[in-house]
């Protein structure tokens, strides 16, 4: 029997190489703004995406280094050298305190952006675990407990991300709300079939929808509720209605 593994490995490696930030990112980056470029990245490719953005703006376009800043929060072991964008290596799939730091600093940087700035958000698989910002009334330990319960439940990633949005101060458009004074551009590398952003990047949408399109099946939802702290339990959607929505944004250039 012919061993197909070398061919399959070549196909896999070619696909990954074709989607590498060094290859695909620069063509989609905006021109230099009047103010700063603030880069906020999350996910396993966050540092690589941030480094590619740095090369584009600093080397190809000649942006002054002091006008570029940002934070890239990536999985432990996935950091790469950068010049202006701080890299934080954080937990995945269970979040850790490094991810808490990365998310908080990212929210602060977004809130400090003004109308002349470009807020460049770079997302890749794993970003939902790397950016951890528990909603009011939910502790960091409780957020970790919910994540473990979700992983044990066997829920598809889309359902996991639906719950994550309800427990977060950064997901579901809340990062965009923090930085709404600036022009906001989101570029994402998807790692799920059909590139559904609700499954791959719950942070990617500029606002959550008025009605939740996903919920955990009732049997799995029961398991989640029985293992979830009471402070967080009420935020897990029981039905397709009852999805807290971020009010419409009036920011500029959302994409």
Describe this structure in words.
The model is unreliable at 204-219 and 239-255 (pLDDT under 50). By secondary structure, the chain is α/β, with parallel strands linked by helices. It folds into two domains: 30-133 and 169-206, Rossmann fold (3-Layer(aba) Sandwich), CATH 3.40.50.10180; 135-167 and 209-243, no CATH class. Strands 3-2-1-4-5 form a five-stranded parallel β-sheet, with helices on both faces. It has eleven helices and five strands.
- The N- to C-terminal Cα distance equals 50 Å
Strand order of the largest sheet: 3-2-1-4-5
Q: What is the N-to-C order of secondary-structure elements (H for helix, E for strand)? A: HHEHEEHEHHHHEHHH
Task: Provide the helix percentage.
Answer: 25-40%
How would a crystallographer describe the biggest sheet? Answer: 5 strands, parallel
Give the helix tally.
11
The gyration radius over C-alpha positions equals 19 Å
What percent of residues are in strands?
A: 5-15%
Name of the CATH architecture of the largest domain: 3-Layer(aba) Sandwich
Number of strands: 5
CATH class of the largest domain: Alpha Beta
């Amino acid at each position: 029997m012919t061993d197909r593994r070398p061919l399959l490995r070549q196909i896999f490696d070619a696909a990954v190489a074709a989607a590498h930030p060094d290859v695909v990112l620069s063509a989609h980056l905006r021109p230099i703004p009047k103010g700063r470029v603030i880069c906020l990245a999350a996910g396993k490719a966050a540092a690589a995406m941030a480094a590619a953005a740095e090369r584009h703006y600093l080397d190809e376009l000649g942006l002054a280094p002091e006008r570029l800043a940002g934070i890239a929060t990536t999985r432990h072991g996935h950091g790469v050298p950068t010049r202006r964008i701080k890299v934080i290596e954080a937990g995945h799939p269970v979040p850790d305190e490094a991810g808490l730091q990365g998310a908080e600093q990212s929210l602060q940087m977004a809130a400090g952006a003004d109308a002349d700035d470009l807020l460049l958000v770079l997302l890749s698989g794993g970003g939902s675990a790397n950016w951890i910002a528990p909603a009011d009334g939910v502790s960091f330990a409780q957020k970790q407990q919910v994540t473990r319960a979700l992983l044990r439940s066997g829920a598809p990633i889309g359902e996991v991300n639906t719950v994550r949005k309800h427990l977060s101060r950064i997901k579901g458009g809340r990062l965009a709300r923090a930085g709404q004074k600036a022009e906001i551009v989101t570029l994402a590398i998807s790692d799920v079939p059909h590139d559904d952003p609700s499954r791959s990047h719950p942070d990617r949408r500029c606002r959550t929808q008025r009605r939740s399109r996903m919920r955990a099946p009732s049997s799995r939802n029961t398991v989640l509720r029985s293992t979830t702290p009471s402070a967080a339990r009420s935020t897990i959607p029981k039905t397709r209605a009852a999805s807290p929505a971020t009010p419409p944004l009036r920011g500029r250039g959302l994409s």
